[in-house]
């Protein structure tokens, strides 16, 4: 075989030509014919280093051998369970996750407990760093909020195993609230739904600020004071009904406060209010619809401005939430009644990509039922489809 010519245009010497032989004298046809030499396998130089053998192996950039995880080139997926040990039967839940994980052919799951100092966001980041392919969370609304904050935009699906007091996100997703095994099983064979995540940048009177997530709703004013005044022991005993006690304590000394607020793209407003809610979801326990048109996956946040001026105003607020939104709106005749009724301004609604809210003096703030102190400003934004949630196979999400 003759190689290509060099840069001068002259043909190069044939690679196999004996020393001192003119390359032009070699017949290419004859050179291509097989010779009569029979080669044995040991005559062929090996393509491995002397002394090495066995199966193929994985190496790093420098060629050093790297161990294979689990003895396979592609290890099995693994799940991570984050749970509040106060809210769940930890041993039973861990055993359930282990059993269903093994049944699905997944690796041994990882387990993380929340603490007073870590509500779930830090351990969620640890789980993601450890390579978890799915994360399960079991605890109250605060635990779900903290884990969702860390997992926002991670692309890793989150399974909510209902437990604790409110289960508000689970309720709004219409998940089974009394069948934890159904949700654990869905981790391995269920569907996924991308839901929005809200973020609130909170600024204190001293200028310090922090940004935290919420997946249900955040608020400033009376709703936050109500949560702060709710007896913790009573809440553990009777659940969300304990908030009625907190509301009674808060209403006694409730005073309206001046706020300036603006939804992006809308004009600036000023009003005296009792509370401002920014919601990603609209449903509360006991079938109450605080914001009936709120959707967890529409890319918007819903705003409710509560501004009753007196006792009658509070009655109108209660009628709006407990009767109009939660009952009449379910029926065609009820919706006709609402269309004919004279509107009141005890509750005002708005919708948009966020809310910029400022007040002085500072007012209490809550996010998904967790207290976040007092603030003079709260700027909310939405991350559309920021959290990938797990739902049971075939779960109807058309109304979400």
Quick structural overview:
Strands 7, 8, 9, 10, 11, 12, 13, 14, 15 and 16 form a ten-stranded antiparallel beta sheet that branches. Strands 4-3-5-6 form a four-stranded parallel beta sheet, sandwiched between helices. The protein has a two-stranded antiparallel sheet with strand order 1-2. The longest helix has 15 residues, at 311-325. The chain is built from eleven helices and 16 strands.
Beta-strand content: 25-35%
Give a short account of the largest sheet. 10 strands, antiparallel
Cα radius of gyration in angstroms? 33 Å
- Determine the CATH topology of the largest domain: Tumour Suppressor Smad4
Low-confidence stretches: 1-17, 44-63, 66-74, 240-246
What value does the average pLDDT take? 80
> Number of domains in the coordinates?
2
H/E order of the elements? Answer: HEEEHEHEHEHHEEEHHHEEEEHHEEE
What overall geometry do the principal axes of the alpha carbons give?
Answer: globular
How many strand units?
16
């Amino acid at each position: 075989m003759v190689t290509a010519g060099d840069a001068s245009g002259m043909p190069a010497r044939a690679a196999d030509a004996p020393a001192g032989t003119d390359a032009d004298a070699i017949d290419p046809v004859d050179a291509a014919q097989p010779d009569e030499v029979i080669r044995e396998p040991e005559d062929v130089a090996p393509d491995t280093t002397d002394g090495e053998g066995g199966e193929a192996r994985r190496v790093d950039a420098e060629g050093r051998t790297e161990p294979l995880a689990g003895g396979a080139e592609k290890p099995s997926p693994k799940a991570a369970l984050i749970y509040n040990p106060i809210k769940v039967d930890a041993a039973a839940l861990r055993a359930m996750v282990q059993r269903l994980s093994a049944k699905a052919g997944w690796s041994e799951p990882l387990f993380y407990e929340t603490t007073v100092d870590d509500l779930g966001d830090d351990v969620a980041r640890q789980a993601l760093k450890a390579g978890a392919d799915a994360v399960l969370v079991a605890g109250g609304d605060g635990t779900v909020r903290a884990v969702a904050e860390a997992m926002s935009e991670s692309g890793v699906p989150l399974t909510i195993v209902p437990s604790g007091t409110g289960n508000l996100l689970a309720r709004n997703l219409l998940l089974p609230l009394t069948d934890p095994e159904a949700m654990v099983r869905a981790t391995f064979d269920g569907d996924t739904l991308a839901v929005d995540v809200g973020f609130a940048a909170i600024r204190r009177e001293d200028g310090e600020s922090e940004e935290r997530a919420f997946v249900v709703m955040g608020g400033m004013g009376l709703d936050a004071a109500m949560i702060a005044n709710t007896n913790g022991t009573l809440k553990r005993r009777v659940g969300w009904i304990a908030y009625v006690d907190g509301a009674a304590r808060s209403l006694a000394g409730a005073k309206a406060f001046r706020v300036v607020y603006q939804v992006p793209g809308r004009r600036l407003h000023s009003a005296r209010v009792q509370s401002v809610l920014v919601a990603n979801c609209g449903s509360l326990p006991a079938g109450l619809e605080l914001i009936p048109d709120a959707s967890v996956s529409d890319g918007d946040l819903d705003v409710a401005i509560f501004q009753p001026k007196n006792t009658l105003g509070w009655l109108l607020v209660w009628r709006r939430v407990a009767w109009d939104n939660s009952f009449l709106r379910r029926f065609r005749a009820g919706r006709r009644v609402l269309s004919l009724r004279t509107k009141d301004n005890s509750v005002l609604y708005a919708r948009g990509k966020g809310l910029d809210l400022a007040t002085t003096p500072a007012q209490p703030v809550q996010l998904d039922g967790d207290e976040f102190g007092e603030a003079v400003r709260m700027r909310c934004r939405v991350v559309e489809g920021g959290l990938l949630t797990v739902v049971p196979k075939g779960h109807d999400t058309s109304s979400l």
